[in-house]
Amino acid sequence: MATGLRASPASPTAGASAMGRSAAPPLLLLSLSLFAVLGAAPPAAAEQQVPLVLWSSSRDLWAPLDHAHEGHITTDTQLSSYLAPALEKGPRNVLLFLQEKLSIEDFTAYGGVFGNKQDSAFSNLENALELAPSSLILPSVDWYAASTLTSYLKEKLGASPLHVDQATLRELKLNDTLPALLLLRLPYTTSSGLMAPKEVLTGNDEIIGQVMSTLKAEGVPYTAILTAVRPSRVVRDVSLVSGGLGRHLLGEDEGVKPLPPSAPLLPPVSYNDTEPRILFWAKNFTVTYNSESHDLTPLTFGTSALNLTGSSWNSSFAQLVLTYKNLFGPYLTLKFILRNHFYPVSARTWFTMDRLEIHSNNTVVVFNSSYITAPSIYSFHCQSVSTDRSKDGLLMSSPASSAWRVNLQNFQIQAFNLSGGNFSYASDCTGFFSPGIWMGLVSSIFMLFTFTYGLHMILNLKTMDRFDDHKGSTLSVPLTE
């Protein structure tokens, strides 16, 4: 059985992919790794990963993964280490094929792994991997790491992503001196109407084939990446089992089954005295110091062992204190400091999260978070709260805290006016007027002003009301001295 992660540089003469030459094509090994993932992790956890495929026109970009093992899930830190050789030594042209949804089960169901290779929905991708001088296949990547891939590549390349298709790609003049990040979005079943999943995946594969043919014809060096924003479910396709195939996935006679429903969301952290006072929740909670990173999500939410000692509350001040043992030292303590204040101008009370403090190894690091604010009758919600300035993070760090990084996904907090222990209506960090809306409004107002001025000029035109009569005497104006 194939391991969860395998890669090796290709032979210069054979042009094999990074997974090495074998009797099975690369995507077959990718599909078989599903058994390793599902065998080592709960079914619910398996839904949280997406596959990621890399290939490049340069040689020897990726070495064999010595630490690979069955069921291994590639984290964001590991993914960045895999991408580093390609971004530092490889071509400066990076193509990101970003599909809306994709899972390892799609390769198993529609990759022709049951002997019907002629019916594979990924023939062009297989061909690209076989011909690429170097390639790397990661069957199970944390979906959050894959979803933030565009921002990571933008930061590393120093180039904004350019959304292209097959037509615009032919018009671009690419070279290997200036970095270019080309983003090609591929659809899935949710945006394809009545088309079957296999037909959509086949269409996506044809797009990949056309793009690769264009780059090959123009001789443009490249590094290509295929992944998805989030995992998908394999929709049962009757054609898979109607052909009388001798074997089916996991030995079942029912064809491909969808994965079990995902696990329920973990409950928020709740600080209580006589009643619930502070609520805090995030879908993903990660703290990093230098190169050491810890996911605090399972240690924070849905557990009774969380230490809230030091937390306090009154009508104008709230402090939520989270303490963890044996993280970055003997203890790691995080303090969320919030204040409630009445503003006469708006005639209402607003709460503000003044700062986030990290206490570790007798040192204190402070992050200013004054942008986290909302009316006190609401909760505050933001899709991403982090210390990353390149992503407009809401946590502003001081120079002494540059080694610490905090990342909160789907963050929500409320410390005042709780109702029944539940979050109130959320005030979101995303403003109603985005830069695009402002540009549209200003342009529309300018055009409306121009139209109004022109209409006003037309309405005020006056025709002549006196004319010369050619039968009478001509008009004369006497000159006076």
Plain-language structure description:
The chain is α+β, with helices and mostly antiparallel strands and 481 residues long. The chain contains twelve helices and 20 strands. A hairpin with a 2-residue loop joins strand 9 (284-289) and strand 10 (292-295).
Distance between the termini: 117 Å
Characterize the biggest β-sheet.
7 strands, mixed
User: Helices and strands: which structural class?
Assistant: alpha+beta
Tell me, what's the shape? Answer: flat
Fraction of helical residues: 25-40%
From the alpha carbons, calculate the radius of gyration and give it in angstroms.
30 Å
**Any low-confidence stretches, pLDDT <50, length ≥5?**
1-29, 31-47, 189-194, 234-262
Tally of alpha and pi helices:
12
Q: Give the rounded overall mean pLDDT.
A: 75
Could you name the key traits of this structure?
single chain; 481 residues; alpha+beta; seven-stranded mixed sheet; seven-stranded antiparallel sheet; 26% helix
Give a topology summary.
Layout: H1 26-40, H2 43-46, E1 49-56, H3 76-89, E2 93-101, H4 104-110, H5 123-131, E3 134-142, H6 143-147, H7 149-157, E4 161-163, H8 166-171, E5 180-186, H9 197-218, E6 223-230, H10 238-241, E7 269-272, E8 276-281, E9 284-289, E10 292-295, H11 297-300, E11 312-313, E12 317-325, E13 331-343, E14 348-360, E15 363-368, E16 373-375, E17 379-386, E18 396-397, E19 404-414, E20 426-428, H12 435-459
Parallel strand pairs: 2-5, 2-6, 4-5, 17-20
Antiparallel strand pairs: 1-3, 1-6, 7-8, 8-19, 9-10, 9-19, 11-12, 12-13, 13-14, 14-15, 14-16, 15-18, 17-19
Helix pairs in contact: 1-4, 5-9
